[in-house]
Request: fold
Amino acid sequence: MRVSHEWLASMVELSGVAPKEVAHRLTMTGTEVEKVADFATGLEQVIVGQVVGLQRMMHSDHLFLAEVKAGPDDPMEVVCGAPNLFVGALVPWARPGTTLPSGLELGRRRIRGVESHGMLCAPDELGLGSDHTGILLLSPDDAALGQPLSAVFPQDVVYELEVLSNRADCLSHWGVARELAACIGRPLQSPDTSPVPREGQPLGGLVQVEIQDTRLCSIYLAEGFVGLPKDPAPLWIRRRLLAVGQRSVGAVVDLANYVMLEMGQPLHTFDLEQISGQGGVTSVVVRQALDGERLQGLDGVERRLDTGMLVISANGKATAIAGVMGAMDSAVTANTSSILVESANFAWTSIRSTSRRLGLRSEASSRFERPLSPHLVPAGSARFTRLMKETVGVSPLPAPCVAGGLPRSAPPIRISSDRISGLLGMTVTADRAAEILESLEFSVGRDGNALSVTPPSARTDVSLPIDIVEEVGRIAGYDTISSTLPPLRQPPPRVESGPPLRLVADIAIGAGFNECVTLSLVDSVMRPPVPGMAGLLESLQIGNPLSTALGALRTGTLPGLLGACQLNQARGRERIRLFEQGRGFWPATAGDRPLEPDLIGFVDLSVEDDAEESAGRLQKVLALCQALGDRLSLQDTTFRAGECQGFHPTRCALVVSGGLVRGVVGEVDRRSTAALQLRGRVVAAELRADGWLTPGGRLIATVELARTPPLVLDLAVKVPVRAELGAALQAIRALEVAELEEVRVVDEYRGAQLGEGLKGWTLRLVFHDPNRTLTNRQGDLLRGRIAEALRDSTGAVIR
Amino acid sequence: MTGDDLQALASRALEEIAGAVDLDQLELVRRRYMARHGGLITSVAAELGGLSGPARALLGREFNSAKGTVVDALAERQVTLEEERAGGGLADEWLDLSHPVHHLERGHQHPVARTIREIEDIFTRLGYTSVAGPEIEDDLHNFELLNMPPEHPARDAHDTFYLSGAAVGWLYRTHTSPMQMRTMLAGAPPFRIIVPGKVARRDNPDPTHNPVFHQVEGLCVDQGVTVGDLKGTLEHVARELFGAERGVRLRSSYFPYTEPSLEADVACGICNGIGCRSCHGKGWIEILGSGMVHPAVLRNAGVDPDRYSGFAFGMGPDRIAALRYSLRDVRDLYENDMRLLECF
Ligand SMILES: [Zn+2]
Reply:
């Protein structure tokens, strides 16, 4: 919302308070000032001139030649394209040599053979709003010939405010002035709402008002005015409206807008003749719209309404969407001579949903969609009535119509100054608290340190003791509270839940992989070619997506990582190693919480299409998975051949630990690589950390450091080429040979002498007995048992 | 033997050391004088045993000095002779700095993960524990228990992604605050937690918004926690993240789940609070929202607001990373361009 400095200054004395100070104080207390802009600057050189002669220019269908004078000198000719000039009009004239606020410098110019002396200006050319429909016309009451325009439009400053969503009261100059008064410690002069004398026929004899559901409209007040003059609203009103960006459209509507911007209460003006029937009393009803009822709004658009929307109907016909927009046919026009002025309070939830569903937001609805105080209804109406009398000289009709009523006032809020001090962390005496609250127009009762507080009626956001603490804190200023740290009364607990993010990242980064973060949202239509651990699980769909490209939740990390490969390859990278840790989202049975596995994805792409090279990279990724398992799992980790969507059928392994599949490692198959528009070969892995890897990792059990010499024996065996070492090692472990300290493969070979389809392993066995030196004979026996286990598990034959 | 005899012996040894032309000759000299058994100098030690009183002390000093001199001379001559033997004083062995330095094949941290780690470390030092919460939430924990009933105007700022199909009724959390509630409901005060994680809001992507982003929630609930404690904590965090000389300010704000509510700004890194183009003339850049936990929220969590008070805050590590590392567009953080990652 925009507020004018000059307008605020009519309610709180601002002499000596610079706009920068105003902006700072408002920002610190919660009403953030987004921008401070000058209004009506640089108008000193533009003068008030009068059109004394006007003719169409030859050879032009839109240009006029105006004779303009600004004093006793001879008039000068100015070429002008605006359609609203007339002889006698007072206009802003920028003579040659003048610089306009935009920086444009004017001179003499020949236009179609005529010398034009400067220009006549439209409001936008003067920085007075955005209107460019015609030259700014000045009234003889406001402007004198030859006067600088800066005398007619004194300089002002406009603040652009971001009003907090609970502060409906600050959507008005009055509310902002109340804040400012408290901030700078000066009194608030509220707008004059005192009653004016009434004249004429009682309104009650012309109009009756009824509310169908007081939950949707608690109070509806209507004032009538007849015999409206054609004059515009006075300049000071129009000037303030202009400063905050509101166009002037005639006295009645200008005054209604003025009251809304000043008091925060939106008013609606109906042309009384248009809503009245053929004689008799006009029945105005606040009711729900009928299904399919239609209404053409002020903006000319016809809308279809339904029972969820609130309307104002006159004699049975909807003539306004309550709180949102009036109908075209009851709108006030230049010919309107009598009006009905509505001041009402509607349920904000209803206005909000109507405005949403119609996609229609107006100045009125943007206020009504927050909890406005019903007490603003009589205040706004009274302010309008007074301004009508003061500025256009029209008195209200007697007996205004009222339906509904004001709520009973809430009991005062009770709080002690000790409680305020205790929560703020600084000493606030009862006197100081009362002083602050009173500066915000709260009324405060005192009993020692106990305060009983009643907020001003406009402050619908204050109802609890904690609200009072906030009021005191923000006006006292948070900068006056000393900074402390809460004492740690209890040591923080150790938490071993959650994925071991840091350890995994450290190990992966150490292995040369770059950490990635990708979005949780993925395309809802395209199936990822390499889904990873999720396999063929369906993805969860977003009901209200921004686009189909972000229309589903990812099931795993690999699609995002492969997307990042694509981006990096397109940007010239030949080797790309990435990893990501994050959640996948898997469907549960209907109604249950969806599953959120903690996943770790790895990709390693090389642009080379070389099977041997990629086999080497695959081995390294296996080693990485092994290292993660060894460091962070309570159980042993092994690999076995498996198949997985999107992976090379014979270059894919499942990671197994504790009897469960914990991950998949392999080379991405050619079809998927092509589908992803990647060149080269990609090794990928995805691990599921939850239930497997823990931050604490493996329970550390130290081994006995035997002092006796070890017995080292090698065991050379022949196995089928696709034998799995994991299975072999598991079989050896299952023997539980206490003396076996270590077993590892020290040599691997193939050759014709081994026979078709066979390969050789040389296993190094390290035996140790802490109590005795093992003899070769004892070692041979142990080796024999191990060889047997190998034979049974992998078909190994001793060589 | 007298002290003079010993000195003469040492001088003779030094002459012979200097005269040795190769390592073999030097070894012979060493043996002659310094052999453990029968070396001309080492055997003097045995003589010392037969002396007593001041004479023994005197000769002992002379002996140690002579032996030290000879040992040093032997070592030095040995190095010289070894270098000579290697030819030209090791001139062919040198650290070739004309080669480009090889790249260690290390990976890099993601800027957001790095920022979250730093934030975690700052809070761990203050006694907080980092916990993770579900990213899929229900309306109850994401909104209602946090004092945002249906139709609450503050829900506007939380434009929410709702799941459909079998998961209808679930939503992607719009903030990490639901974990405040889950933590409090599961335990008893005092609480000191932070909750880093992903959140999502239905905002169209632009240079300052991404539909998915990270938040770090914080919650501290105990007896007697004050706005001053909140202020001290946030100022500390801002200074840790942005430097001690950087201005920090707290201004009043509104969130339904905190009261009083405060927003923390740091001074613009370019203009330091004066206002420039990069901060849109404001001089300050918003980094987090915070406040004292609303009594209604405490009550919803089963914590008695008359006995306990606390504060909560939520910060955006994406935005903090963008500010600290001068990134113009937060969307760049999710592209994972290796040229960016390799800066970390
Ligand atoms: Zn700046």
